[in-house]
Amino acid sequence: MDCRSGVVLRKELPVGLTMPTLHTFRLLPSVRKIEQTGDHKTLSQTLRSDAILHKMIAQDLKEWTHSVRNTLSAKLGPKSRSNPPDNDQLLHPVDRVTALFQCKRCHRTGRKSSQKGALDFRDVIQHRCPPSTLVPAKDEDKFKQQREWDVDNFVVDGAAIAAARLALSAAKLDEQTTDKQDISRYRYQWQCLTCSSRLTMEYSSLVSTN
User: Fold this and answer.
1) Given this model, what pLDDT does residue 184 score?
2) Are 13 and 141 in contact (CB under 8 A)?
3) In the predicted model, what is the mean pLDDT of residues 27-33?
4) What's the chain's Rg over C-alpha atoms?
5) pLDDT (tens digit, 9 = 90+) per residue, 167-184?
6) What are the domain boundaries of the chain?
7) Residue 117, SS3?
């Protein structure tokens, strides 16, 4: 079945679920089973009336997300190991503002092909390599395979993490408890003291121009 069924399924799922790329979503066991047995023209109505299908897909997404988060956490190194179960105040390593990655396949970062910057967790799971950055392939299937999402395509962005930690230190913020909402809420800005213009930057710009 074509990708239209996957699009329909994604649209009918509750808002707030961690959603990967469409290709990755269609590889989930429950989605593959539904696509093999359903028609994209009737899927929307079926999903709206079948709570069990909702739970199946939500569970697969939960398991997939858990696996990706553990893999990315391991890439961040031993200093970013998961928090003790009795300490709810500390953020999971992947949720910290210092959890920054880059795609080693296309050597670009950011959801848009024109954006160069560090990737956080949500950016990573939604990332697709721009066609212009891929190696040309005569076989169309091989070219498409290059764009398939794989957690192993991502590596730690050491320079961005170093910049993020310097910024947190300057603002006297704790890496283990500060998230993006905290930075946005208080509208933190940083000034570069090494350039003549004394450029003032927000956090997102700072970690993207390291």
Assistant:
1) 84
2) no
3) 85
4) 20
5) 899 889 999 999 888 888
6) 4-79, 93-208
7) coil
Using an 8 Å Cβ cutoff, are 146 and 129 in contact? yes
Whether the pLDDT of residue 114 is over 50: the answer is: no
d(CA 51, CA 193) in angstroms, rounded, equals 56
The conformation of residue 142, written as its DSSP 8-state character, comes to H
The SS3 assignment for 26 reads helix
Name the average pLDDT for the chain: 78
The two structure tokens encoding residue 41 = 């023209």
Q: Rounded to whole angstroms, how far apart are CA atoms 198 and 207?
A: 16
Q: What is the pLDDT of residues 92-112, one digit of tens each?
A: 999 999 999 998 887 655 445
Quick one: 110 exposed, middle or buried, by C-beta within 10 A (0-12, 13-18, 19+)?
middle
**Does pLDDT of 149 surpass 70?**
yes
Collapsing DSSP states into helix, strand and coil, what is residue 59?
A: helix
Verdict on whether the full-model pTM lies above 0.85: no
Give the residue carrying structure tokens 């707030």.
16
Q: Return the residue matching tokens 């990967």.
A: 20
* Residue of 167, 150, 145, 5 lying closest to 97 (CA atoms): 167
The answer to whether 200 and 208 are in contact (CB under 8 A) is: no
Query: What is the 3 state secondary structure string of 176-210?
Result: CCCCHHHHHHCCCCEECCCCCCCCEECHHHHHHCC
